[in-house]
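hiii, so i know i said id send this last week but things got crazy w the move. better late than never?? heres the sequnce for the chain we talked about at the cafe, plus the structure i predicted for it. fair warning i was half asleep when i ran it
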Amino acid sequence: MTLGELSETLGFEILTGDTNLKREIKSGYVSDLLSDVIANIEPDSVWITIQRHINILGVAKLKDVAAIIIPRNLQLDKEVIEKAKEENIAILRDSRSAFEISGLIYNALKKGM
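okay and structure toks below
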């Protein structure tokens, strides 16, 4: 399943335009601890986190993360969004909790396989 298909299916708000929308998503990970993400996330994953500072982009780039998903409609600084576009990292947002988003993604990826 591509990031665009996942976004459309689950109704995510796309903050970074068409960045990575054609990229295949293989997995997902939920964590707010950057060191945990560095140690455990797989490439081509979506990362669900409430963290919204610029350092999330460095972690996403280091681990080849396709997208960062921000739950609860939390706001991001414009600079983070612009830098994400430059670094080719998609940022999505949704009103649901991280728990609910992770379950929806899990089910969508299992169904799409």
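btw Residues 98-112 form the longest helix (15 residues). thought thatd interest u
miss u guys!!
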